[in-house]
Amino acid sequence: AISQAEQQAVQAEGGLSEAEARLGQLSPTAPAAARVEEIFYRPGEWAAANTPVLALLPDSEVKLVFFVPEAEMALYRPGRTVRFTCDGCAAPGSARISWVSPRPEFTPPILYSKGSRDRLVYRVEARPANAATLNPGLPVDVAPLGADQ
């Protein structure tokens, strides 16, 4: 009777493993904590195999993009921290520069800034410390770095 009960327990564990695998296939989880950026298919709609149903944006991929005049370019290096503000933000934020363009470009036609820009600028990307609180596309004002920072 003990041997038979042990065999039934092994079979039950196998059934549990199969059910967990099937659940994982039918309702997968996101690979990382992220916000839903776009929904391609709603419940009840049919999606072809291997077709994404959602577009996710992980907090680790939220970044600030801003442009720096050529005259100030030497101050901006990966690893440095910039301060920024935005409309509706409770307090100023900080972001660590993750990438600086090696090539200059002409000023884009639309820049969300309060002042005028030089015609030759460099694109800079920075990862904000409070990424979960920022919405993609939100205009920000980045404080210029000083030589003493």
Instruction: Assign the structural class, choosing from mainly alpha, mainly beta, alpha/beta, alpha+beta, or little secondary structure.
Output: alpha+beta
Helix share bin: 10-25%
How much of the residues is beta strand, in percent?
25-35%
For this structure, the CATH topology of the largest domain is Elongation Factor Tu (Ef-tu), domain 3
Q: In DSSP terms, counting alpha (H) and pi (I) runs of 4 or more, how many helices?
A: 1
Task: Give the CATH H-level superfamily of the largest domain.
Answer: Efflux pump adaptor protein, beta barrel domain
N-to-C series of helices and strands: HEEEEEEEE
What's the Cα radius of gyration? 25 Å
* Number of DSSP strand runs: 8
The N- to C-terminal Cα distance equals: 77 Å
- Stretches where pLDDT is under 50 for at least 5 consecutive residues are none
CATH structural architecture of the largest domain: Beta Barrel
Query: For the residues shown, what is the average pLDDT?
Result: 84
User: What is the CATH class designation of the largest domain?
Assistant: Mainly Beta
Main sheet: strands, sense, barrel: 6 strands, antiparallel
What is the count of distinct domains?
A: 3
**Cα shape:** elongated
